[in-house]
Amino acid sequence: MNCSEYLVDFLVRQGVTDVFGYAGGYIVPFMDALYKRKDAIAVHVCYNEQGCALAADGFARVSGNVGVYFTTSGPGAINALGGLADAWFDGVPLLGISGNTPSTEIKGSSGLRQYGFQETDIVAIADSITKYSVTPRSAKEFPKIVSMAYNTAILGRKGGVLIDFPLDIQQAGIDRG
User: Fold this and answer.
1) 12 is a domain residue
2) CB 16 within 8 A of CB 8
3) Residue 53 DSSP SS3
4) pTM of the model as a whole
5) Structural domain span for residue 154
6) 124 — phi, psi (to 5°)?
7) Which parts form a coiled-coil structure per UniProt (predicted)?
8) CB-based burial of residue 67 (10 Å sphere; 0-12 exposed, 13-18 middle, 19+ buried)?
9) Are 16 and 66 in contact, with CB atoms under 8 Å apart?
10) 21-62 pLDDT tens trace
């Protein structure tokens, strides 16, 4: 099992039945994992990333469940910030998943960004409008991060969380745990 499959399995175990998304190159492994579980999770493809986040927000409001959306890196993730902000201001449980370049291309030791195509520090950008935003750096820490993100969205005052999901971490092998 890879981290993408782990995340989808986790969502299924939490009762997530619907996700909203917009395809892009750096989120494909997660989309493949969703496709493998199409019996359990319906994927609603949106016309743009902002629509994905807002649709997931609306779904959460109506269903009482966590809204989940996914986007690709850089401008795709940035376009979804309106939905995260809306969830922040209104206390709506929302889980955003943004694909990103491989972790080796994210913020090198020099501190410079933009090593990878459309790589953006979405965690820093989203920090003030999320309860929790994180970029996993290894498959080993991924289960803890997923659990933390989900629980943070639903506990206390509900709100939006963001997992910035690097391509190599999406593909990395992991124990089911």
Assistant:
1) yes
2) no
3) helix
4) 0.93
5) 3-171
6) -65, -40
7) none
8) buried
9) yes
10) 999 999 999 999 999 999 999 999 999 999 999 999 999 999
Is residue 130 in a domain? yes
Residue 109: the pLDDT is: 46
- Name beta bridge partners: 173: 2
Give the angle subtended at the CA of 101 by the CAs of 46 and 123, to the nearest 5°: 75
Evaluate whether residue 27 is within a structural domain. yes
The predicted model gives 118-132 an average pLDDT of 90
- E strand or H helix at 125: helix 122-126
**Mean pLDDT lowest among 79-93, 112-126, 136-150:** 112-126
The CATH number assigned to the domain holding 112 equals 3.40.50.970
Output the furthest CA–CA distance in the chain (Å, rounded): 46
Domain count within the chain: 1
Tokens, residue 64: 């009482």
Specify the pLDDT at position 154.
97
Any domain includes 75: yes
